[in-house]
């Protein structure tokens, strides 16, 4: 059974009350102030029922909130697959240098923002791909994509700040990005923009991404408290992450 700290238990009770109410305009407020970045662990944006191959789910608050997740068109009985345009069995890309892969993923992510849209390109991921954060472990790029698609609202953004080879961790590409938008819980909860760090581990033999770990620059309680009580943002909780400056990102030129 998941452990709940006193603060988490309090937030759990408050969240239960809030998600049972109609949508409120107070959830739509936002502020923009400079945020000092510091890498910390985060609360996941997935529910256990979103993905068939969840290996472990340990956070009690988010597990409870997943019961209020909005249903997908498929779950509602509609013959619609929101990710039906993706060929999850497509042939994998050939091995390339870590630097070129980082530049390629930078261009792909900048355009598709699949960290929030689920619009992944499976050709860069191994069949044994795993996702992990402090609360969730899952296997398979398709399960990851569908979990993202179900959890994040359509207005969510994953603004890529950088996608670079990590010189401190072998065979790793680190993506720094700004998350904003909302989650499909109850009537919908707007989330305060914050910075995310995604480490992508690349297999030395195949050159494919086989592991992904996400971290946030603020703790999970700050994220939840800011969503439930946005008037506390910048007072009790951290201010929103600053806006991201646009970049010109191009796909690397193919070598002849």
Summarize the structure.
The protein is an alpha+beta fold and 256 residues long. Helix content is 23%, strand content 23%.
Characterization of this structure:
By secondary structure, the chain is α+β, with helices and mostly antiparallel strands. It is built from six helices and seven strands, in the order αβαααββαββββα. Strands 1-3-2-7-6-5-4 form a seven-stranded mixed β-sheet. Helix 1 (6-19) runs parallel beside helix 6. The radius of gyration is 18 Å and the shape is globular.
Distance between the termini: 56 Å
Q: Give the quaternary arrangement of the chains.
A: single chain
Q: Give the rounded overall mean pLDDT.
A: 78
Order of strands across the main sheet:
1-3-2-7-6-5-4
Q: H/E series, N to C?
A: HEHHHEEHEEEEH
Outline type: globular
Radius of gyration: 18 Å
**Secondary-structure class:** alpha+beta
Number of helices: 6
Strand coverage percent? 15-25%
- Main sheet overview: 7 strands, mixed
User: Helix fraction?
Assistant: 10-25%
Low-confidence stretches: 1-14, 16-39, 41-53
Report the count of strand segments: 7
Q: Characteristics of this structure?
A:
6 helices; alpha+beta; 7-stranded mixed beta sheet; 256 residues; globular
Topology, pairings included?
Blueprint: H1 6-19, E1 54-57, H2 60-65, H3 98-112, H4 114-117, E2 125-132, E3 136-139, H5 141-151, E4 157-165, E5 172-183, E6 189-202, E7 209-216, H6 220-228
Parallel strand pairs: 2-7
Antiparallel strand pairs: 1-3, 2-3, 4-5, 5-6, 6-7
Helix pairs in contact: 1-6
């Amino acid at each position: 059974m998941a452990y709940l700290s006193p603060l988490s238990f309090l937030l759990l009770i408050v969240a239960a009350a809030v998600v049972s109410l109609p949508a409120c305009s107070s959830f739509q407020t936002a502020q923009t102030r400079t945020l000092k970045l510091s890498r910390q662990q985060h609360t996941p944006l997935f529910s256990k029922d979103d993905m068939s191959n969840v290996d472990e789910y340990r956070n009690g608050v988010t597990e409870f909130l997943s019961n209020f997740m909005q249903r997908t068109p498929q779950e509602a009985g509609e013959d619609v697959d929101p990710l039906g345009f993706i060929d999850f069995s497509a042939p994998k890309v050939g091995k390339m240098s870590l630097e070129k892969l980082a530049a390629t993923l930078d261009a792909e992510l900048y355009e598709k923002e699949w960290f929030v849209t689920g619009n992944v390109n499976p050709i860069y991921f191994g069949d044994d791909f795993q996702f992990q954060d402090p609360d969730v472990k899952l296997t398979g790029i398709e399960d990851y994509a569908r979990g993202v698609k179900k959890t994040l609202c359509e207005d969510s953004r994953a603004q890529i700040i950088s996608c670079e080879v990590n010189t401190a961790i072998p065979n790793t590409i680190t993506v720094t990005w700004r998350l904003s938008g909302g989650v499909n819980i109850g009537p919908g909860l707007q989330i305060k923009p914050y910075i995310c760090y995604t480490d992508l581990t690349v297999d030395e033999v195949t050159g494919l991404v086989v592991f992904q770990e996400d971290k946030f620059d603020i703790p999970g309680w700050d994220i939840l408290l800011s969503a439930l009580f946005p008037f506390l943002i910048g007072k009790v909780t951290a201010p929103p992450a600053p806006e991201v400056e646009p970049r010109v990102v191009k796909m690397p030129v193919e070598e002849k």
